[in-house]
Amino acid sequence: MSGLSMGQSIGPPIGGVLYQHLGWKAPFIFCVIVCFVDLILRLFVLENADIRQFHEKRFGLPLGALKPKIVDRELVILDIPGLEDTSCMVLTEAEKDKMSGIDLKPWEVIGALCKSPRGVAAFISVFIFGITTGILEPTLTLRVQEIWHKEPGFVGLIYLAAAAPTFVSGPIIGALSDRFGAEFIILPCTILVLPWLPLMLLSSSLPGFIIFFALFNLLITCAMTPAGPEVSIDSRHVKGLGEIHQFGALQVAFAISTVVGTTVGGQFYDHIDNDWTAVIWFPFGIAVAALPIYFFFVGDRPLAKRIFGKVEKQEDTEEESKGVTAAAEEEKRNLSADLDV
């Protein structure tokens, strides 16, 4: 998730400078160049299936001979003399499930994850991150230009300053989530997001606006960070789901929410009289609506279960203690009766 923050931090200032000095086509040309370099680098990535095909040709074996097979419910790997590195024989969880006859379609993957309240809560976390950042993307630049008369390059620097803390927050939040649980990260961070959105309505101070936006961006990123592990843990109980399925499902949620956010933000700012006010209160309301879901469903032991579970456990202990006391008194009365006899 730190890579996402770095990209979102570097992109706006570069785009602002290119737009300001070279025109509106320059940022698109820059993106095409970056994507082309990324494509070239991806061509050098070798999957295990490609490596197996290379060794099959080298040893004159039929296609698919080196792929492990299931015989009598056991995984059998072909032993080839001269093949020292057998790491290409390792199968991913998705390949194992497919060999076992479990092969989920894309919509079945999302459907399987959405059947679990924990998975839905993780998707909502990513969705809120996408829609809140998306709704500000087309409008924050216009707001800064309208109120403080700043150029696009300066707005890019605002994004850079706001996203800089997220460079280090990802590993820290990840470690805290692993140690204490996602339930202690997602809900508190979402609650802490809420005060900074209304404060961004103030127009008296540009430094204050930048600070409010930076705190909002940091906390909404922290609230979204544990979503990946949450989906990963939840999907372990679903046959046919692999790591790539989990990542792809989160990307779908992020893409849809970003599209919705940018569209809603642009329409609000263009067609509503209180444009910036509507832009701010819309994600605020969505974040508030998600709080009960986080409270009841996020983590191995959601906060609701931790709180109400302790109360129930305490009541059970008191009832058990009363039962033991009553049994002891009954036994004492019986013993006294025996002595009298």
TrEMBL record:
Q: Which GO terms describe its molecular function?
A: transmembrane transporter activity
Major facilitator superfamily (MFS) profile domain location: 118-341
- Return any one Pfam family short name: MFS_1
Q: Which UniProt keyword terms apply here?
A: Membrane, Transmembrane, Transmembrane helix, Transport
Task: Tell me the PANTHER family matching this sequence.
Answer: GH10249P
Q: Does the keyword Transport apply?
A: yes
Q: InterPro entries from the xrefs? A: MFS, MFS_dom, MFS_trans_sf, MFS_Vesicular_Transporter
Show the taxonomic lineage. Eukaryota, Fungi, Dikarya, Basidiomycota, Agaricomycotina
Say where the protein is mainly found.
membrane
Where exactly are the transmembrane stretches of this chain?
26-45, 119-136, 156-177, 184-202, 208-227, 247-266, 278-297
Q: Which PROSITE patterns match?
A: MFS (PS50850)
Classify the protein's membrane topology as the record does: Multi-pass membrane protein
Q: Where does it live in the cell?
A: Membrane
Please give the GO cellular component terms listed in this UniProt entry: membrane
- Name this protein carries in UniProt: Major facilitator superfamily (MFS) profile domain-containing protein
**Ranges for region Disordered:** 315-341
